[in-house]
Amino acid sequence: MQITYAMNATLMNYPPLEFMVLITMGRIGGTLTMYGPQALLGYVGLAILTVHFTIPTIYYLMAKDWLSRDWGVRPSDDRDPPFVSIIVPTYNEAKTITEKLSDIASQDYPRDRLEIIVVDSGSIDGTLDRVYDWIRKHGDVRVKVIEEGVRLGKAHALNTALKYAEGDVVVITDADSRWFPDSLRRAIAWLTIDGVGAVSCNKIPRHKGNVIEEEYRNYYGILRIAESKKYSSAIFHGELAAYKKDLLLKIGGFPNYLGADDSHTAGLITLSGFRAIIPEDVRCIEYVPSRGYWSWRIRRAQHLVQNFSKLIGMVLTNRAKPPSDYRPVLFTEAYLHLVNPWLFLVGTALVIASAIQGALLPMIILLISLALLASRFFRTWIVTQIILAIAMIRNIWNKELVWRKEEKD
Ligand code: GDD
Ligand code: MN
Q: What pTM does this model have?
């Protein structure tokens, strides 16, 4: 009983958790145990959690090794710059579209080698007025405007725009994102390499301050570059996604049967034998919503889950054959997104159940985990597992192919 009090005292800094610990301690009284069915339950839980944490750790170590290797290919600036069609899909982007167009126009890429295609799906906030205003003031930039009367989703709009694209290269960029002046030039330099079919960017959040978002970026940003060096990034970003147009047409345009137009297009191009990469020097700025952060995270997780389910389904049923260097990337990422979150939830539930019944080892591990919650990375990891699980459940009834516009500032 004395031990119990000592433990409680150190946990005072975590009020809500301390509550949980108190319940645990209260229940057990003097009956701490290492054996019996309740302890066994906890050991099974611990084994499951060990798998949950070991696989991503091994993958991260492998990724570190890929990261230290050479690209094997080199970007080239001296080729004739290809003609580029930059597609900006808009739904209610009046707040950001003017700045977005100016941002594109200020790229250090030859003006006469690019066109902008704005495809709008029935915005009701005056987005198109802003677009026409901007065009009037910038006669030196080629802009096409496509008005889709009804909103059928981003991928549908991209396919409509694709029909009007004259470039050999098609670049997608969200209205609420920004580039650096060299983003386009650097992306194109990589894209023109033989064997590369698609290029995307490293995301830099616009506002520092959301720690969960930042932590999420550091870890995942490294994985994206490492996977790219190995063969292809498992995830692509709509802030800047550049594709060779002939490959886009070969895979049938943008997928409109699921939500991850960016990552899934990159996946399909990879399965057709071309690399989809995120090089270190291509950067873009992402706007993170100020309100609706959680529903935004869940929706994006839903789209990623749809992407990996589809790709892994194609491979497991032999409808597609991944390039051998891409296999470890696709298989591990599919596992991490679709299976691993459940191991966390089940393992944790078993450990808690067993600790409450007085099993000593699960209880100690549980207390250590509570202390680990002080680490930002650990918290972020857990939050991500929960979001993925919610996303998988939510996908059952709503795929979010046409989604709510979140406020960003
Ligand atoms: N034309 C058109 N029609 N554009 C649309 C539609 C639509 O139905 N829906 C969204 N858009 C546009 C938005 O105006 C924005 O320019 C871009 O598509 C991305 O939409 P956001 O609402 O800003 O979504 P996000 O910030 O979560 O975007 C991220 O996740 C999406 C998938 O979940 C990005 O990574 C996107 O590229 C990605 O598609
Ligand atoms: Mn956005």
A: 0.91
